[in-house]
């Protein structure tokens, strides 16, 4: 999968000594690091510990702590001193509220999520593509008492991991798919051999045949998901609807029913998005 090039801080030999002399960080590099840290903090609504942010950012602990503290001083982040976790701050809420009017996808998708949850009993979700990842935006709980908690608002997965990412990846141009499916040791260590490029490609082929993606417990054993892509005005997949639940609820005969419901709701939203804007 897509990986970021190592920075001067992360280029170290096995003995821990830097391979390159430390360089001051300016301009675009600082912006990139701040954006990365904001994304990492937002992955978990219950808060993200510093150790996890350091691990996944590839930056040194002092650098991460300095940037997080600066963001907190501006109101973009909050620090829970009791749980030692980092959270989005009030300024993020203000920005999101101001921005929401420009991106009506949540308003369009909410009725579809409600219908899916009511008709199936499973939890329904809306995810958006952001670069090489999907981010869960909305959730509607189903009535079935046993649920899967792999997916929740704010969680991010690489494209090709989880049903929403598979549904989107299946309808991207082949050169774009090739660029995203880069085999790396770090990716295999994080997501396992079941998410090798060959395995993902096989699932993409199945998705193109049925129109919907199936994640047969690849992230967490026994936790299944299905997804269908939503297309923007240019015909590109930018979002996905998905359903998650436990394996017994996703037997082959029921997959066809769930898949058809997902496709119908995804098509409904796509058609709305593709209507010409009112002059």
Model description:
A hairpin with a 5-residue loop joins strand 8 (223-231) and strand 9. Helix 5 (105-120) packs antiparallel against helix 10. Strands 6-5-4-9-8-7 form a six-stranded antiparallel beta sheet, with helices on both faces. Strands 1-3-2 form a three-stranded antiparallel beta sheet. The protein folds into two domains: 27-93, Orthogonal Bundle (Arc Repressor Mutant, subunit A), CATH 1.10.10; 103-273, GAF domain (Beta-Lactamase, 2-Layer Sandwich). It has 279 residues and is of the alpha+beta class. The chain has helices at 27-41, 50-57, 61-73, 90-100, 105-120, 163-169, 174-180, 185-191, 197-210, 252-273; strands at residues 48-49, 77-80, 85-88, 123-130, 133-140, 156-158, 213-215, 223-231, 237-246. It contains ten helices and nine strands. The protein is globular, with a radius of gyration of 20 Å. Residues 1-22 are annotated as: Disordered. Residues 91-275 form the IclR-ED domain. Residues 28-90 form the HTH iclR-type domain.
Helix-strand layout with pairing:
Layout: H1 27-41, E1 48-49, H2 50-57, H3 61-73, E2 77-80, E3 85-88, H4 90-100, H5 105-120, E4 123-130, E5 133-140, E6 156-158, H6 163-169, H7 174-180, H8 185-191, H9 197-210, E7 213-215, E8 223-231, E9 237-246, H10 252-273
Antiparallel strand pairs: 1-3, 2-3, 4-5, 4-9, 5-6, 7-8, 8-9
Helix pairs in contact: 5-10
Region (Disordered): 1-22
Pfam family, one: HTH_IclR
Organism: Cryobacterium gelidum
């Amino acid at each position: 999968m897509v990986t970021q090039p190592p920075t001067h801080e992360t280029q170290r030999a096995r003995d821990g000594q830097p391979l390159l002399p430390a360089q001051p960080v300016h301009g675009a590099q600082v912006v990139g690091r701040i954006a990365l840290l904001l994304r990492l903090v937002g992955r978990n609504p219950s808060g993200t510990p510093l150790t996890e942010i350091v691990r996944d950012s590839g930056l040194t602990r002092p650098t991460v702590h300095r940037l997080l503290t600066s963001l907190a001083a501006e109101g973009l982040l909050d620090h829970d001193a009791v749980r030692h976790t980092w959270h989005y701050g009030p300024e993020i809420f203000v920005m999101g509220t101001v921005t929401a009017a420009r991106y009506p996808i949540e308003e369009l998708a909410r009725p579809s999520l409600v219908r899916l949850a009511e008709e199936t009993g499973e939890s329904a979700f809306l995810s958006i593509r952001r670069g090489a990842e999907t981010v869960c935006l909305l959730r509607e709980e189903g009535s079935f008492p046993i649920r899967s908690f792999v997916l929740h608002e704010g969680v991010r997965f690489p494209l090709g991991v989880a049903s929403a990412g598979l549904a989107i990846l299946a309808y991207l141009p082949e050169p774009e798919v090739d660029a995203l499916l880069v085999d790396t040791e770090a990716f295999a260590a994080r997501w396992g051999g079941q998410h090798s490029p060959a395995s993902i490609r096989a699932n993409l082929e199945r998705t193109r045949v049925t129109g919907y993606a199936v994640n047969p417990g690849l992230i967490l054993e026994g936790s299944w998901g299905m997804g269908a892509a939503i297309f923007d005005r240019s015909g590109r997949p930018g979002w996905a609807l998905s359903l998650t639940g436990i394996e017994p609820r996703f037997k082959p005969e029921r997959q066809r029913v769930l898949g058809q419901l997902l496709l119908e709701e995804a098509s409904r939203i796509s058609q709305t998005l593709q209507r010409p804007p009112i002059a």
